[in-house]
Design goal:
This protein is an alpha/beta fold. The chain has one domain: TIM Barrel (Alpha-Beta Barrel). The chain has helices spanning about 5-20, 40-45, 60-65, 85-90, 100-110, 145-155, 170-190, 205-210, 220; strands at about 30-35, 50-55, 75, 95-100, 120-125, 155-165, 195, 215. Strands 7-6-5-4-3-2-1-8 form an eight-stranded parallel sheet. Helix 5 (about 100-110) links the parallel strand 4 and strand 5. Helix 3 packs parallel to helix 4 (about 85-90).
Length: about 230
């Protein structure tokens, strides 16, 4: 299939999954992950009506946003973030899905432009849904404290909700149920933080059933990633 056909196929599957879960398909945001693809693919996606794109690496996000000259898009940073890249991320991203520690939240807040024309930066707390403390994300039992820190100490950040990646060695539904519980914890701190960023090419149906609002879909839409050395 070509890009148009793949996009239409995924959108049809998203709509079917939403209706099966008793949800309105229009309430879901589909983010196309363009990792390793050239900016020309983003031009093509925009021409097909895509409004949200995601990048995992700060350097790619910065370069592609600078090179892109089409209709305005919403750029999501969805990869692991280093505090020394906070300024570059803040300049290039409209939403950051991977805030997982107070130091990173503080760095993103400190990196706000002096003339804050764009307003607050949308952020989500990345939750570690595995038992491996080395994986990215705040531990489930640390979500509330991190939400309280962002809400109290980082006024230039707008806490939108949570993000998670389902472990490979577990049924996605169980992991997404834990993420939904974390989302409820965050809403007790910030009541309108209603975003749940979950679901990728292989598990977005389970994510939708668990309440995901933002889906991060890559290869099912973009095709295979180019070989990256």
């Amino acid at each position: 299939m070509d890009l148009r056909s793949r996009l239409a196929d995924v959108d049809a599957r998203i709509a079917d999954a939403a209706r099966s879960a008793g949800r309105d398909p229009s309430s879901l945001t589909r983010i196309v992950v363009t990792k390793f693809h050239p900016v020309s693919l983003i031009d093509d996606l925009a021409a097909l009506g895509v409004h949200d794109v995601g990048e995992n690496r700060q350097q790619e996000l910065t370069a592609k946003r600078a090179d892109y000259a089409g209709e305005p898009l919403r750029w999501h940073f969805i990869g692991q973030a280093q505090t020394n890249k906070a300024r570059a991320i803040r300049l290039a991203a409209d939403a950051v899905h991977s805030v997982d520690r107070p130091r990173l939240a503080d760095a993103l807040h400190a990196a706000r432009p002096e003339e804050d024309i764009a307003g607050p930066l949308d952020v989500l707390l990345q939750v570690n849904l595995t038992d491996d403390p080395g994986r990215g994300g705040v531990a489930v039992d640390g979500v509330t404290a991190l939400a309280e820190h962002v809400a109290a100490s980082c006024p230039s950040l707008r806490l939108r909700g949570v993000m998670g990646v389902a472990p490979l060695d577990e049924a996605p539904a169980a992991a997404f149920a834990r993420l939904a519980a974390c989302a409820a914890d965050v809403r007790r701190v910030v009541p309108d933080a209603a975003w749940i960023s979950a679901g990728m090419t292989g598990d977005f149906v389970d994510a939708i059933a668990a309440g995901a609002t933002h889906l991060r879909i890559g290869s099912a839409i973009t095709g295979p990633r180019p070989v990256h050395g």
